[in-house]
Amino acid sequence: MKFWFIKYRLSLLIALLGITIGSLTLFPRLEIDPDLDNYVPVEMDNRVNMNHMDSIFGGSEMILVMLKDEDVVKRSTLKRLKNLSEELGNLEGIDRSVSPFDAQTISTEDGFIIMEPFMENIPGDQAGYNELKSEILGNRMASRFFSTDDFELVSLMLMKDSDYSDDLLITAIDSVLLEHPGTEEVLLGGLPYVRYSITGNIKKDLKVLLPVALLLMIFMLFASFREWKGVFMPFSVVIMSMILSFGVMALLGWNISLITVLMPIMLIAIANDYGIHMIARYQELAQSENPPSMLEICRQIYTDLKRPIIIAGLTTIGGILGLLTHTMIPAAQIGVLTAIGIGFSLILSIWFLPAMLSYFQPVGKVRVKKIRRVMSADKWLRKISHMVTNHPKQVIITSVLVGVLGITGIFFIKVDTNIEGYFLGNSKVSRSIKLINEKLGGSQFISILFSGEVLSPEILQRMEYYEKVLSEDPAVGTVSSPVTLVKELSKGFYNVDEEGYNQIPST
């Protein structure tokens, strides 16, 4: 039966609305996953190596708490830092807290090794502050917490349990910070805080940007069709397609990621096209001199547009499914989900939209005249069509030149995989990352695993050599290894003027 969707229109509408409502009930299962490690396959070499190192050294992650002021080497700032270190270290989800107060001064006295807290007593005058700065510069275990070029920044490190919730922990940290106010600006850094910020940004996008995009779509539809059916029909197609895609996401157990959050925007851009074609054809028929009945209009727009819309939809689905070849898991997921949404919008546009449209009356003649007056876009389209048909060579040459220009631009595309570029320059996350990069040696880590007798002089000397070479690279901020601790411990065995002081032991 060619026009079955008209004969069984009520059953069709109920079935498609039922699918949409059923998908909507799955929404509580959706979760946001900001962890970039989960975006790559478990069999990828880099992730295999990371998991191997986590199994050896533990899966702890670091959160950096930074205090920024004109000069942080002063009593009030250091006392605040000490209090924060003690209280934050006791939070659930924090394995331990490391700050300048955990650094040690190692020396010898009468043949004994003396290890004393580096900042056991905080000075109270400027002379004491200046002396403390000199001592900080001479102690590698303490200097790593300060911006030693200007002493405008001091930090403490919180080692987070990798299984604990980022949201709960950052909220608890913020509460402790509020209990210890001060004149210093407080900034947070580290991968857990970045994930926390990504989660907040995704929620903000879904709550703010998505409604804004939908409102813009409503405005453009009304500006084009000037009647409520021209707005409501394509809009309902897009909304139902988005609901189904999110429902399938929940059904498959997939999470909303930094990439899949783009899916609803893609559906707004693509899924409304087919409904727009149907409404445009409906208005053409309704505005004719002898307009047919609404049932005849619905049959006619289906007959006229079924084939081109199906072809356009299938080619779009085929292109979107090309994302299945992508290495990143969310990219493949967004390909599947968007293809499902487009496929559903195709079904809705071809059958659901005419079936629903058949329940309404066509636009009246008075309304038709009003619509014709306000639809100035038709006049511009006619002018453009005349220009294209009258000057075909110029149009082709211009199109080719624009295409060539676009192709040359491909060679200037740069791939940016740095998560730091995901945040605006004035955001707190971006500012904290910039400070860590400029003042504290960098916000990202590359781990090198040594196997064997790692405390043997040979391997320690190799580490020291690598450390020296890597430190000369301008892209490397600081290098940390067991060599630092071993050389600090050597200060407890030798005097400053003795061979072996601040050196790796020969045996």
Features:
alpha+beta; Multidrug efflux transporter AcrB transmembrane fold; two-stranded antiparallel ribbon; 19 helices; 58% helix; elongated
Describe this structure as you would to a colleague:
The chain is an alpha+beta fold and 507 residues long. Among the domains are: 4-30 and 226-374, Multidrug efflux transporter AcrB transmembrane domain (Multidrug efflux transporter AcrB transmembrane fold); 376-413; 448-507, no CATH class. The chain has 19 helices and 6 strands. It has helices spanning 4-7, 9-24, 45-57, 75-89, 126-137, 140-143, 166-179, 191-225, 228-251, 263-270, 272-286, 294-320, 329-357, 365-374, 376-390, 392-410, 428-439, 457-471, 482-490, and strands spanning 61-68, 94-98, 104-109, 112-117, 153-160, 185-189. A 4-stranded antiparallel β-sheet has the order 2-5-1-6, sandwiched between helices. It has a two-stranded antiparallel sheet with strand order 3-4. A hairpin with a 2-residue loop joins strand 3 (104-109) and strand 4 (112-117). Helix 2 crosses helix 9 (228-251). The longest helix is centred in the middle third of the chain and has 35 residues, at 191-225. It starts with a helix and ends in a 17-residue tail after the last helix. 27% of the residues are buried.
